[in-house]
TrEMBL record:
GO cellular component, one term: extracellular region
Boundaries of every R-spondin Fu-CRD domain copy: 9-110
Keyword Disulfide bond: yes
The UniProt record lists the keyword Disulfide bond: yes
Name of the featured protein: R-spondin-2
SMART domains recorded: FU, TSP1
A Pfam short name: Furin-like_2
Organism of provenance: Rhipidura dahli
Keyword field: Developmental protein, Disulfide bond, Glycoprotein, Heparin-binding, Secreted, Sensory transduction, Signal, Wnt signaling pathway
Locations listed in the record: Secreted
Length: 212
């Protein structure tokens, strides 16, 4: 439409040369378009982006959406489509979904996510299913899935985690404590060196007596 000196008054019941449509035909929405310092009335079948249609006995009007980051809305307080980069959730727009909800990227909506319970207490420190015989082990805690997500593609948070812990009993009662393999190798190597040194010392003594 051309909103110059001769505005187009399509769909108007009454029209002003300077201000465009003043009243619209039945079922059409009156929209006040602003262009710089001036504004013109226009009659539309549907309201533009950022506005919603408000029907009244007097005249249907296009009213601005008052919801932040909303592109189109159903009513003053309910957004139906958010601006690019924002997720729609219960008529509002969010950068990220609230707690307990997951982002559905293809629709840019927040849907019910996977709900998990509270963490259990840390379990017994153990290693190789033993609670003794080692200095360090692992302890684990878990939590249960309380509510499955609305879609199978939405992952649940981790339900088990482990951390390093110090054994309460390093030596097992009533049994020999087994040395780690590295410690055994060091002791064996040291023993071999001692035996070689003693052997060389014996040979030296025998050679010394012969020379006398």
């Amino acid at each position: 439409a051309n909103y110059g000196p001769n505005p187009i008054c399509k769909g108007c019941l009454s029209c002003s040369k300077d201000n465009g449509c003043i009243r619209c035909q039945h079922k059409l929405f009156f929209f006040l378009r602003r262009e710089g310092m001036r504004q013109y009335g226009e009659c539309l079948h549907s309201c533009p982006s950022g506005y919603y249609g408000l029907r009244t006995p007097d005249m249907n009007r296009c009213s601005r959406c008052r919801i932040e980051n909303c592109d189109s809305c159903f009513s003053r307080d309910f957004c139906t489509k958010c601006k690019t980069g924002f997720y729609s959730h219960r008529g509002r727009c969010f950068r990220g979904c609230p707690a307990g909800f997951a982002a559905l990227e293809e629709l840019m909506e927040c849907v019910e996510g996977c709900e998990v319970g509270q963490w259990s207490e840390w379990g017994t420190c153990s290693r190789n299913n033993k609670t003794c015989g080692f200095k360090w082990g692992l302890e684990t805690r878990t939590r249960q899935i309380v509510k499955k997500p609305a879609k199978d593609t939405i992952p649940c948070p981790t339900i088990a985690e482990s951390r390093r812990c110090k054994m309460a009993m390093r030596h097992c009662p009533g049994g020999m404590w087994r040395l780690p393999a590295k410690t055994k190798d060091k002791k064996k190597k040291k023993k071999n060196l001692m035996e070689r040194a003693q052997k060389q010392h014996s040979i030296f003594l025998a050679t010394d007596k012969t020379s006398q």
